[in-house]
Amino acid sequence: MSESHTLTQEPPQNQKGHPKGLYVLFTTEMWERFNFYGMRALLALFLINALAFSEKDASIVYGGFLGLSYLTPMLGGYIADRYLGNRNCIILGGLTMGVGQLLLFFSGHVYTSSIDIATFAMWGALAVIIVGNGFFKPNISSMVGQLYNKGDSRLDSAFTIFYMGINVGAFLGMSVCPFLGDVKVGEVRVVEAFKWGFLAAGTAMFLGTLLFIFLKNKYVVSPEGKPVGAKPEFSEENIVDKATEEAEKAKFTKGSIIASVVLLGILYTVFHFLSLDPNPIKSWVYPFIYASALSLAFLILTDKSITKIERDRIIVMYIVAFFVIFFWSAFEQAGSSLTFVADKQTDLNFLGFQLPPSFIQNANSIFIVVFALPFSWLWLKLQRKNLEPISPVKQAIGLLLLAVGYYIIAVQIAKIGTTGKLAVHWLFVMYLFHTLGELCLSPIGLSLVSKLAPKRFSSLLMGVWFIGNAAGYALAGTLGALIPPTGDKFEFATSKGIDLQGILDGSINPTTEQIAILAQEKIDIVYPTFVGVTIHNLYEFFMVFVTLSGTAAIILFLISGILKKMMHGVR
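-> structure tokens emitted (571 positions)
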């Protein structure tokens, strides 16, 4: 397929407005994100306060859950492309996630009578939600792209609007679920309330699925009026779409499949031994996420029907997805380490209201709702003036804004020491920069996949894109576990006559009794380390994210010219 032919097939670029199907998908995704983010806001706190997990273990579980939730879209995308179609997978995934939330509700209901049963139910609930998200997530995102003709200039704008739906849902979920589930009476948390937050999340998921079932046939259609996301039908002889000169069906040889499986085994073994840790999730689950991402990328590139232009474009997606890992590893501290800081070392009084700690991360959703449409307008305005940056440059800007947000919070946290309280408005300022970075990176990434992916790989490559997210979330769990003791740990130690600072600095040798007291409260007596560097305080902890995301931003910007050539006319 030549580049010139592709460009001549693009539709006129003067369409105004968006198809109604976009708003059906917007609403469906909104309720699903209510479900997912509402539960996510409570998960780490529920693990610590109800199921007696340590902060370190809760961070690793949180990262593993998010990582697997964005790994299963690989399988869900493949099943949709080859067997069930997008629509059926969305319905199946939505109902499955709703059941998972009911299991979390059950866990929150029985933990007082049997923590073992509650813990077992929690693991089952997370597994069910992970599977359901795998069916749902890649398919609704890929359907947005199918509402438009190839090359439609409205696509970046469409995904930004769709992304606002994601964050309207996140805002609602992280408003309703924390106020129902993260309840305090004075300084005492009402742990029994967590279950009501999970029940609200499940109710939203069932509602969104039902809306999609009733509205999909009327509105979710292509520009020609054909159903979008129906079960795939492959012709036996004509395996090339005449309109686009794209093959209809992937052609993986038995040898390439076997080679990919062998590669998966080798990479998994390597990553496992590099990640040896007492925590089984970090040692066994995280390596599987990393190995799956690389082996699937290899498998797709072995497809015999791929042309050179398609191969170049797919490689661009892989390169950008790699840099996105660093964004999400920092961004997703929102549900773990940043929530712990909000809970233990932040003055949560804001304009006379005492906010729940799990609500603070909702600032991101509020800012998304406020800025999504202006960003959509900005990209269209720059496009008309021929000044719009290409997608990799937008994503480099997103990484840089993320680094700025963390630098602001690092400077402020350095001023308060180990026992001071951070003013909550500084967390809001940080989330503002994170949000602006997210708008430059995440919806643009979804749009990039729709533009670059061959049609036969649309859902599968959306799954590959989410594997980049999955790897970032797994890394987020690893990095979140590096958080040094917060102020509440020092206050507790002092109340027991223990000099925690002296123990950490190595100037005092703790007694056996002191070690036992600290261990019971899950307080570490050694500083965490990262790539050989000791992290002594929260300032150094947050500077890890400044360094990682800032460096990634610079490198991605420097190679954007090479990526532009490999995109062959796609911006």
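Strands lie at 183-185, 188-190, 240-241, 246-247, 346-347, 349-350, 353-354, 422-423, 529-530, 533-534.
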